[in-house]
Amino acid sequence: MTVSDRIRIGKALEINPQLFDNENVKSVAKRVLIGKAQGASNFVMRLFTVGEGGYSPNHSHPWEHEVFIVAGVAGVVSDQGEVEAPAGSYVFVPSGVKHQFKNRGKGNLEFICVIPSSADEE
User: Fold this and answer.
1) Is-above-0.70 flag for pTM?
2) Which of 34, 99, 100, 111 could form a Cys-Cys staple with 58, CB 3.0–4.6 A?
3) How far apart are CA 36 and CA 118, in angstroms?
4) Considering all CA atoms of the chain, what is the largest pairwise distance in Å, rounded to the nearest integer?
5) pLDDT tens-place string over residues 81-98
6) Is the dihedral of CA 27, 33, 37, 39 positive or negative?
7) In 3D, which of 18, 28, 100, 118 has the Cα closest to residue 59?
8) Which pLDDT belongs to residue 120?
9) Which helix (H) or strand (E) holds 78?
10) Average pLDDT, whole number, for the chain?
11) With contact defined as beta carbons under 8 Å apart, do 93 and 65 qualify?
12) DSSP conformation class of 39
């Protein structure tokens, strides 16, 4: 096996998104970029796209996750209030902390979210 046989490269927007739009989530698309299906055993990398005025659910879970804001402006909501995180920002959400991401800009909000593979609901 050569190195190129082990490395996987793809285009995020070629992955069909899972769409969410209900009373708890508005205008959210999730793409699993790297996960178990790609052979990743430790982490899952997901790309979320949130439309104008959209938001993720206000929730918590027993795992941490790391977030990088790719485009737009995120409103990061926690029990302490809301803080804006523009493109280029990173966000660490500890396990058990209630949180929500809101699109606070014009156009789409896009962020990468990394979680442990044990938390993956793929």
Assistant:
1) yes
2) 100
3) 10
4) 51
5) 999 999 999 999 999 999
6) negative
7) 100
8) 62
9) strand 73-78
10) 92
11) yes
12) T
Is residue 100 within 8 Å of residue 82, measured between CB atoms?
Answer: no
CA–chain centroid gap for 114, Å, is: 7
* Closest C-alpha to 15, from 45, 40, 56: 45
In degrees and rounded to multiples of 5, residue 81 shows phi and psi of 120, -155
DSSP secondary structure letter of residue 5:
H
Is residue 4 within a helix (H) or strand (E), and if so which, with residue range?
A: helix 3-6
Residue carrying the six token digits 């795992």: 63
Instruction: Please check whether residue 53 is in contact with residue 109, taking contact to mean a CB–CB distance below 8 angstroms.
Output: no
Upper half-sphere CA count for residue 19 (Cβ side, 13 Å) = 4
The CATH topology of domain 18-119 is Jelly Rolls (2.60.120)
Supply 47's token pair.
Answer: 């790309």
> In the chain, what are the domain boundaries?
18-119
* 3-class SS of residue 97: coil
